[in-house]
DNA sequence: CTAGCCATGTAATCCGTTACATGATTGG
DNA sequence: CCAATCATGTAACGGATTACATGGCTAG
C-alpha cells in the first residue's frame, strides 16, 4: 500500500523553516519601501537594535516574492539617475503577512557568547572576568544612547507615521532589556569581587 | 614583488569567524566532560538558557581539536557496554581557551521575531497584538520556573562544583532579563489597550 | 579627479540544525 | 519484547553574512 494513505497522521512532519527574512522584506514592502537599497538602509538605521538583513538576503527574497505573486516589480529608468527596481506589495502579499503576524514566534535558541565565557570564568583571573562585564556594561550604555537617538528622531516632528506607536514599543523593549543588563552587570561585578576576596583568604 | 611585502597594511583583513562551538566544546572539555554525548546532555540540561549545540557540531569539532593538538582522544571498549571515545583537554587547549576567554565578545546581531512582528502591529487588530505579547509573557514565566529548577538543583547538595558561582551568575542573568521582559509585556499591553481605545474614538 | 552615495546583484563560504544510520545494553 | 538510554557519526539542507563585481551621478 502506498505510504501516507488511510489517514495516517504521518503526513510528513511539518518541517520547521525560519523564513524571517522573507517576512521582514514583505513587511517593509507593506510600509511602502520600494527598493532593496532603501530596505537595507531602513534596517541599519531603524531596526538595527532587533533585526538585521543583508543584500544577499534582500535581493533574492524580493525576486522570490514577485515569483509568488506577493509583490510586483517595475523598472524605473530616469535620465541622469541610476536605474531602480521599484517593488510593491500585492493584496495576497498583505494577506500572507497578516497570517504570519498572528502566529506566535516559537522561542529561538539563544546563544550568548558573554555568558558562555563567564561560565568558564574560573579559568582566568577575576580581573579578566570583571573586564568582560565592564565592557558589556559599556556596550549597553552605548546601545541606550543609540536607542535614545532613534527615539527622539521618531518623536521630533509631530507628523506621525502609522507605525510610530509600534516602533516606540520596540524601543522601550530595547531600553528595558539594556537597563536590566546594566543592573545585572553591577550585581555581577559585586559577586566577582566577593569571589576574589574569598579566593585570597 | 611578492604581495604583502614591504610592511603594507593590507596583510589581508583579519576575517571574522564565529567559532563559538569550538570554544564551547573546549570549555566543556576543561570541565572534565569526556564524551560528545555527555556534552550534548550538559548543554541541554545546564546551558540551555544561553547556549545550544548539536551533535553535528560537537563530533566534528572534537575531531578537529584533536587534530590541532588541543585535545586527546582515547578509545575505551568495555565488555558489555558500548564503545566510547574519551576526550581530554591538553595544556595547549587550556591555553587557547584562556586566550579566547579574555577577548570581549563583539556584539552579535540580534534578531527578535517578536519585535519584528510587533513593529508591523498596525496590519492586524489589537487583539492579535495583545495575544502575541501575552504568549511571550507566558513563555517568560515558563523560562523563569525552568531557571529556578536549575538553580535549586545547583544549590541543593552542599558539594560545590568549581564553576558553581559562575553558573549562578548566568542564572541570575536569565532571571533579570526575563523579569524585565515581563515588566515590558505588561507596559506594552497597557499601551496596546490605549491605542485600541484611541482607534475606536 | 575622486570620494561617497545610490543602486543592483551573485558566489563563496560559514555556521548550524535536522534527519538519518547504526548498534549495544538495561529495565519494565 | 520493547522502549529508553548510551553512544557515535555523517549528509543534506537551509539560512545568513561577506566579499566581490559593476556603474553612474554629485559635491567638493
Question: Can you put this structure into words, describing what you see?
Answer:
2 copies of one chain form a homodimer. With 201 residues, the first copy, chain A, is mainly α. Chain A has 2 domains: 20-101, Orthogonal Bundle (Arc Repressor Mutant, subunit A); 113-200. Helix content of chain A is 60%, strand content 6%. Chain A contains 7 helices and 2 strands; from the N terminus they run αααββαααα. Chain A has helices at residues 20-30, 36-47, 55-67, 91-101, 113-119, 126-155, 164-200, and strands at 71-76, 84-89. Chain A has a two-stranded antiparallel ribbon. In chain A, β1 (71-76) and β2 (84-89) form a beta hairpin. In chain A, α1 (20-30) packs across α3 (55-67). Chain A is elongated, with a radius of gyration of 24 Å. The termini of chain A are far apart. Residues 1-10 of chain A have low confidence and may be disordered. Chains A and B meet through α1, α4, α5, α6 and α7 of A and α1, α4, α5, α6 and α7 of B. The structure holds a DNA duplex (28 and 28 nucleotides).
Keywords for this structure?
homodimer, 201 residues, mainly alpha, Arc Repressor Mutant, subunit A, 2 domains, two-stranded antiparallel sheet, 7 helices, 6% strand, DNA-binding
Question: What is the topology?
Answer:
2 copies of one chain form a homodimer.
Chain A: H1 20-30, H2 36-47, H3 55-67, E1 71-76, E2 84-89, H4 91-101, H5 113-119, H6 126-155, H7 164-200
Chain A binds a DNA duplex (28 and 28 nucleotides) through helix 2 and helix 3.
- The end-to-end span of chain A amounts to 75 Å
- Biggest sheet, spatial arrangement of strands of chain A: 1-2
Give average pLDDT of chain A, whole number.
91
The share of residues in helices of chain A is 55-70%
Low-confidence stretches of chain A: 1-10
Compressed to H and E, one letter per element, the order of chain A equals HHHEEHHHH
* Structure summary, number of beta strands of chain A: 2
